[in-house]
Amino acid sequence: MKIEVKLFAAARQYAGAESVEIELPDGATPADLRQALVARFPEAQGILRHAMFAADMDFVNDDDPLPSEAEIACIPPVSGG
Amino acid sequence: MIRLTHEPIDIPALLQAVNSPQAGAAVLFLGTTREFTHGRQTAWLDYECYPAMAEKKLAELESQARARWPIVECGIVHRLGKVELGEASVAIAVSTAHRRDAFEAGQWLIDTLKAVVPIWKKENWADGSTEWVHPGVSPTSRPPE
After folding, report:
1. Is residue A68 over pLDDT 90?
2. A3, B5, B87, B101: which sits with the fewest CB atoms below 10 Å from its CB?
3. Is residue B41 part of a domain?
4. Beta strands A2-6 and B2-5, pairing class
5. B139 lies within 8 A of chain A by CB
6. What is the pLDDT of residue B33?
7. CATH code, domain with B46
8. Taking CA atoms, what residue in A is nearest to B92?
9. SS3 B134
């Protein structure tokens, strides 16, 4: 499946784009997506290793399959407040 | 009441929004832009968020707080974009019948906001460099300027 991943803050800065398209096997998990992103953007691995992923605005467990139709986002450690 | 805004936070309006004859206490928390962090000087901060998810998570925080404490009114406002020194980047106001609940709910709301809501700050240091703040990520792995 092809996943468009929204990127924010330093992850967006490393990628130089607000989103990237990643091709993953069906049933892939956030852990798989993280690995694919690290392969694409090796300099961003520090932040990607600490990032969580969201599907349709909710955090997804690292080992749960990513829903194929959902809006997927990479959420690096947050710093609001 | 939840709001993300590029404008300075209207603090009197927020306090007015939580005012109620049912409340005997109102607690206001402001997070403001600090000039020095570990001796390093900040010129200003920039905030960005994942808008749809930030709004959803803020609304969930309000619901969770209302389930846990007998809240009369609750308002959470977060700034986006450029925030100058001394200005509030976040404001949380909670009113309850008795003060203990207002203090506890206010503290829980800001602590939880800082942990889970997808909002990020960028330090614009006085020396001209910039840095996205990602707690737990070592500085060596941050992007080049």
Report:
1. no
2. B5
3. yes
4. unpaired
5. no
6. 97
7. 3.90.1170.40
8. A81
9. coil
CA distance to partner chain B, nearest, from residue A42 (Å): 10
**Burial class of residue A3 (count of CB atoms within 10 Å of its CB; 0-12, 13-18, 19+):** buried
The Cα of B132 is separated from the nearest Cα of chain A by a number of Å equal to 6
Tokens 């997808």 label which residue?
Answer: B118
pLDDT in tens, A10-58: 999 999 999 999 999 999 999 999 999 999 999 999 999 999 999 999 9
User: Could you tell me the CATH number of the domain that includes residue A31?
Assistant: 3.10.20.30
What is the token pair recorded at B59? 């609304």
Range of the domain at A18: 2-75
In chain A, residues with a C-beta closer than 8 Å to the C-beta of B141 are 44-47
Q: Give residue-wise pLDDT tens across range B112-145.
A: 999 999 999 999 999 999 999 999 997 655 565 5
